[in-house]
Description:
Number of helices: 28
Number of strands: 4
Strand order of the largest sheet: 1-2
Amino acid sequence: MALIQLQEDEIRTWSRAQKDAWWLKNVYRGDMPQLTLRSALTGFLLGGVLAATAMYIGAKTGITIGVGLTSVILAFALYRIMAGAGLAKDFTILENNCTQSIATAAGYMVAPMISSLAAYMLVTGRIIPWWHMIIWMCVVSIIGVLLAFPMKRRFINEEQLPFPEGRASGVVLDALYTGAAAAGMFKARLLGYTALGAGLYQAVISDGWMKLVQFSLLRMDQWAGMKAPWTFHERLDSYYYAAATKVGGWIPTILGTDIRVLGLRLTLDAAMLGVGGLMGVAVATSCLLGAFVNFVVLAPIMIQAGDIVARVGPDGATVPISRSEIVNQWSLWWGVTMMVVGSLVSLFGRPEIFRGLFKRRSKEQGADVLAHIEFPLWISVVGIPLFSVLGAWVTHAFFGVPWLLAFISLPLIFVLSVICTNSMALTSWTPTGSLSKITQFTMGAIDRSNPASNLIPAAMTAEIASNSANLLSDIKPGYMLGGKPRQQAIGHVIGIFAGAIACVPLFFLLFLPADANGVRNASTMVSDQFAFPAALQWKGVADIIAKGVGALPTSAIVSMIVAAVSAAAIELARIATKGRFGLSAVSIGLGVVLPPEATFAMWVGAMLFWVMGRRHSEKGTAGHALWVEGLEPICAGLISGAALMGIGNAIVNVLMG
């Protein structure tokens, strides 16, 4: 069924009161079940699980994956199957939309854990208590919700802005519940089968799962004699190196450096294949280019020049050169420069984002016809100042940010949040990274001595802006389908708590395991498995603010200048060609801090779907249904299957010692 919407001339000429009256008469679905107990519970559980997978992928790649359409497909399939078996009534379209809103809100809660808060712990060496993390994230996220609804009446009700990502969810929901149920079940099966296959593969390469399986199959005396469980090597080149070591075979080097030291390994990572499929071949190729320039060209030169060396750690032990040492000692600086300059040029090169931000609202007559279903504005009027003070207090109490700086940052945060929301409305792009850097540099200029003074206010920018923008993107399909906005607001808050409760304990389990004495160390976060590229970017900016560029090697400063000029040129070329120029400065910078083996796996996944999409471009064919229409469920299955099994592997290792 075609969704009912206003025509362009009606959007341009009608007052908001007229538009609200039209929507109430033609689109609003009345008392159709929406935020029910089962939709809230389903969203809470799905949101927690999908948020955990998002955190796993974010720690590996720095990319926060959306979970909205995945939750739509899963909830649709779950209740359609249960309804067919007579176990429950089918979901209504608005119940599914509310579930999607809850799950999406949960998914976005992982962002500070893999970026700003992780960077704070890396910079200061201080472990944030879990309850501080939960309280801080929930408080600032609720500020985003309270800020969103005054903007909702303008951006959605009055200007009818597109919110492309939200609109896509609305279109999918409408299709599933008005005639495309078979296609929906096909996508659900694709997701399920792919997740099962990826999960089984991940189990075979995981030491914890193999330890559990082999312990259960062997006698105790046989198990006791085993040094380690057998696993299939995820790094496929391990078999070659094992054989070469025995027979004195050739070990490839670049300028005398073993390529394994550079991180140049051949890895079959199912999750990274899925991430690559979602990011597309252009972005994946940019990441691969960044990895190639850094690890194949620049890093070997800098090792030979002595700007990257083995160093002595705090405990007096020698820390040999490795991929992470290459990034931390030298590469991080030009990679961060590429990402920061690229994102800022891209932001300010889009004047449509800023156009009309402070336009005066047209005069309207008559009562508010949507007052009984809209989110009451008095809650925002009272709640924003109240939660702003609460946010400043927890920022001061938990992180030591001076009261004055906490309050000074708030007006800047609110202005940047409006810009971020406008960007989301027009492009589905939330420039939280670039906007948070504006806050980070501004606060850093006032107080260079305390890393928290720039990191935490900037984290507030990212979290508040992200929640306000993404809530409005979630509200858009509800508006298209005739739902009640205040129920989606409640659902979004439920999702905030679901994401925080599900992911904070997992964060400590996966990335901050306690040693034999029960002590946690921030240095365990960044590893070959979890590169934390987003956190390293935040840390790099904080280090520059604290130390100044003068403390860096001359070669690093030169690389930053070249990177800044190159990033600006690349993004200006993208703007001039309206996106047809294939490279992305931000993605090149991301490739610098990611493990190159993961970058290559992402490129393989992107290239696979690009090639198959071109081969099966004709709509209506089985190949098109699989490789083009099925791209997202296949990729979601690869990611969720591998991530959930990887998380389970960590839990098994903890339980089995």
